Every structure is written in structure tokens, then in C-alpha cells.
Amino acid sequence: MRTLIHKDRIALIVAFAAILSQPGVKAQSVGTTVIADIPFAFQIDSQHLPPGKYRIETEGSDLLWIKGDSASGVMMVMKDHQNTPASKGAVVFHHYGDQYFLREVRTEGSDGVLWSTETKAERRAKLELEAANPNSGPREDSKVEVALNTPPR
What is the pTM of this model? Predict the structure, then answer.
């Protein structure tokens, strides 16, 4: 029984490594690779990423790659549609205190929006901010937008 579980775990690791090692060919071929110069440290799920320039690429319909010079990450996203195409591309962060959480990517001219749900880390940051300011009443989360650039071809 133990060797069967061990083999299953190895097979899962190999499959996951194969997926992660694939370049963003699909994203580049349809023109959805963008670049953002993010001036602050931020989080995607439980991964902390430093400020810097990042390439953002889609892989399939539900994975978003964020690749920087010193750090990279992957996050699960969902796709939604707007009534009108975005007039400008942007990466949207939710901001609590000194923490930023990547939540949305919009590309110029597209009616599609890639977004993620609130993570445990973001919920914790929101609760900590509310606890530190108990008399401030209901608080709308701050949204910070960073403009996107299309990489040269």
C-alpha cells in the first residue's frame, strides 16, 4: 500500500513539473502576454513577490504565470466577460495596510477579465486592519491599478 501511494505521488509530481515547465506558447501566440512594472511587493495566494518588472502570461484558461527577474509565481484564475472591451490594460491589486494582493488582470481591447478569489492571507489582512481600526465602520477595500504594457514582438 505504501509503495502504491509513493508511486502515485511521484506520478503527480512529474505531471505537475511537466505542466510548469511548459513555456507560455499559447499565451504568446494569441497575444496575451503583457508586462507590468509593479512598484510594491505583493502576494499571489501565499507567495510573496518583490517589486519589479513582471511578464504576465496565461496558460490554458485557468492559470496565470507571473514571471519576474528575481521571483515568479502561478495562480489559478477565472475568466469573466465585461459588456465593453477594456480601454486600457491593468493589473488590479486589493490593498490592506502595507499588503497588496493580485486579484485581476484586464488587457486593452479585450472584454475578458481574469480574476481570482480572496485568499486566506487576504482575508487575514482585512481582518487585522478591521481589528486595528474597530470604530472606523465598514471599509471598502482599496483597489490599486498598475498599467500593463504589451511586450515588443
Answer: 0.72
